Amino acid sequence: MIGPKCKICRRLGVKLFLKGERCFGQKCEIIKRNYPPGIRSKKRGGKISEYGKGLMEKQKAKNWYNLSESQFASYVNNILSGGSKDSNLSTGDQLMRILESRFDNVVFRLGFAASHSEARQMVNHGHFTVNGKKVDIPSYELIEGDEIEVKKESREMPKFQELKKTLKGFTAPLWLTLDKDNLKGKVVKLPTAEEANIPIETSLIFEFYSK
Fold this sequence. Notes:
Layout: H1 4-12, H2 29-32, H3 50-64, H4 69-80, H5 91-100, H6 103-109, H7 116-124, E1 128-130, E2 133-134, E3 147-150, H8 152-155, H9 158-166, E4 176-179, E5 184-187, H10 193-196, H11 202-210
Antiparallel strand pairs: 1-2, 1-3, 3-5, 4-5
């Protein structure tokens, strides 16, 4: 059976890595059936309206970061109203900085979790510290210089013992540093939209919310 998460990727036409390790193999549904669910034709529809393009990009971003509609809209509307602390940057860079600096996203980016949903769960369960203090809020906003570490108590768990093996072939983004042996990471800098390298056109998202 195709799970709902696989249908999201097929509907949007892009791999969003919503099901962890499955997304990296040949079992990934968007590899086997790269066409929208619910139709017999294996070809995608015709021309999409400007509204449809904006909606699609919004859906991509919201699902990529595993956010609710209200959470994502709050981030975008805060930038549009001039409330972002990085208002000197482009709107796209502002949005990517906010999304990429979320605690659950950094846990995912460091390779400690196979998907954003798994990262959120791990954070909720209190497996990590930030600068030596336990933080269990997925939306917690990290800043440059913050250090993330798997709690000493959690390191003894089989899951985290196995993680040391899986991290051997993993490379963290350039804006993060990763200590694979000690299960630690650090935010070296906050990324731009280009450095985040997410297949999303942020300009269409802001046009969608501005209408």
